[in-house]
Amino acid sequence: MNAGSTVLHGRPLVGGAAAGELLVASAPLSFWGGYDYATGEITDRRHPLSGQIAAGRILALPYTIGSSTTTAVLLEAVRAGTAPAAILTASADAFLALAAIVADVLYAKPLPVVAIGAEAFAALRDGQWAELTPGGDVFLTPGDSGRN
Amino acid sequence: MRAGLGARVVVPATTNVSGVDEAGWRAWPVPPEWAEMAQRQMAAYLALGCSPTFTCAPYQSAPRPHFGQQIAWGESNAIAFANSVLGARTERYPDLLDICAAITGRVPLVGLHLTENRAASLVLRLDGVPLALQAADEFYPVLGYVTGRLAGERVPAIDGLAVVPTEDQLKALCAAAASSGAVALCHVVGVTPEASTLDAACQGRVPPELHVLDMAVLRRAAAALTTADTGALDLVALGCPHFSLAEFRQLAPLLAGRKRSPRTRFLVTTGRSVAEWAEQEGLLAPLRAFGGELTLDTCILTTPMLPSDVRCLMTNSAKYAYYAPGMLNTTVTYGSLSDCVRSAVAGAVVRDGSLWEGE
Q1: Quick one: which of A55, B53, B141, B215 could link to B14 by a disulfide (CB 3.0–4.6 Å)?
Q2: Predicted ipTM?
Q3: What is the pLDDT along chain A (148 residues), one digit of tens a residue?
Q4: Which residues in A lie closer than 8 A to residue B181 (C-beta atoms)?
Q5: How many distinct structural domains can be found in chain B?
Q6: B292-311: pLDDT as tens digits
Q7: Could you tell me if B300 and B192 lie in one domain?
């Protein structure tokens, strides 16, 4: 971790290591009807991130709204390899955590989900580089500096 | 069929929509492999001992949970209806966890199962909304949409309604709020069993946040449900959540003696039980004579069934309107039930927005 990074101490709902570019959602999302598991695209046409690809990125999402099938859609995205690399949330979101737990059991593909609280969430910026530790620490570096 | 470990549900368990209309799917371009997998899933739930309700609105056809009863429901609209209208107590249960609760008969003692978490934490106050609009079905999907947007994951209380909404109006409100927000309980003051007064909804505390819902706010919300409202119309879709018997009774006289335009399909989605009752009452004959179609046990969001040439869709449901653009790649127009019928006859969108004018 380089010297310019900020460290957040999150609560790992599902722990795991991951690294990637942050994609920050200012509004909550329903994965059912809002996330295409074939492509990893955010497809809620009323959502600020409509059209963005979240696959492989660290998706920062305040919490989920809408359908109970959000869990199944995220689970299918994990299986298809189109899920985010990890998810940071403001609230402890059971829908996301359950998908991550079942993905690990069914497909041995862990998806870290870390709750960081509303205040830390509000300070996240699109394009920051994030590295997550299994214990729930999140190291953030601005823009390009963390990338190869 | 695949419930191979022999698990059984230990409490009465209803089933949400299936993935396919077993008898009717061939009328639409549903991929046969999808239909086969969906039928396997239905059989698996039945093998676990679930009842074959196959509806997103189990409160319309299955025995209802009673006030204060601890239940575990999935399906966002049904969760909101159970908490807000029936006064039963359920958290928002996602897919997979719901069936675990049915098999174990246990849920964590958290969230909306506990009295203290059921207090409203924000108040939405209607102001200057004409009585004629409050009495109209087309008001409640819009009210629900704005409620979900403002409430997010909190418990809202809607204050200032001057009419007692019908059950279908409350269904529409709950479905919309649970689509645009994470609303699992919405106190409708004077209607929700725990909300005989605003003070009761808030459990005696003063909520920190108040929003005034005036006609400007409501008109903006209504406009947000529509993404295009002119031109040719490919499909009218009703029944989200699943059409009730009362809605079939309302629809039948609107269809009598009329015929849909050949270029606009007219689809009602409902569950098998309600459809059977509607048939017994003679309410499906006018639908067939109109050129309308019926899909059972599923809907256009759950089964990939629409032909790719369906580009423009009209509905009276905020939930269909909310999800259609992203899931179906269509434009959507929101309108009242009678607007939907008139548009199907005209083959193009016809809307009467007069109730939304004024103040």
Answers
A1: B53
A2: 0.94
A3: 455 789 999 999 999 999 999 999 999 999 999 999 999 999 999 999 999 999 999 999 999 999 999 999 999 999 999 999 999 999 999 999 999 999 999 999 989 999 999 999 999 999 999 999 999 999 999 976 544 4
A4: 28, 65-66
A5: 2
A6: 999 999 999 999 999 999 99
A7: no
Q: For chain B, which residues score pLDDT lower than 70?
A: 1-3, 359
Closest by CA to A147, choosing from A40, A2, A9, is: A2
B338 and B246 both lie in a single domain = yes
Domain containing B125: what range?
115-224
Note if A50 is an active site residue. Answer: no
Distance between CA B242 and CA B347 in Å, rounded?
A: 24
Domain-terminating residue out of B174, B191, B224: B224
Query: Smallest CA–CA separation between B258 and chain A, in Å?
Result: 34
Task: Check: pTM over 0.90? Answer yes or no.
Answer: yes
| Total Cβ atoms within 10 A of residue B76 | 32
- Tell me the C-alpha distance between A55 and A37, whole Å: 9
Of the partner residues A34, A91, A95, the one whose CB lies closest to the CB of residue B94 = A95
Cα–Cα distance, B112 to B69 (Å, whole number): 12
* Minimum distance, in Å, between the CA of residue B77 and any CA atom of chain A: 8
**Which residues of A have a CB under 8 Å from any CB of B?**
28, 30, 32-34, 43-46, 50, 62-72, 75, 91, 94-95, 98-99, 102
Domain limit, last residue, from B206, B224, B242: B224
Contacts of B79 in chain A (CB under 8 A): 68
> B79 — phi, psi (to 5°)?
-60, -50
Residues B345 and B230 in one domain: yes
User: How distant, in Å, are the alpha carbons of B56, B58, B238, B310 from that of B61?
Assistant: 10, 6, 18, 31
Summarised one tens digit per residue, pLDDT across range B122-168 is: 999 999 999 999 999 999 999 999 999 999 999 999 999 999 999 99
From A5, A26, A67, A91, the catalytic residue: A67
Chain B residues inside the 8 Å CB shell of A72: 94-96
Q: For residue A88, how many C-alpha atoms fall within 13 Å in the half-sphere facing its CB?
A: 39
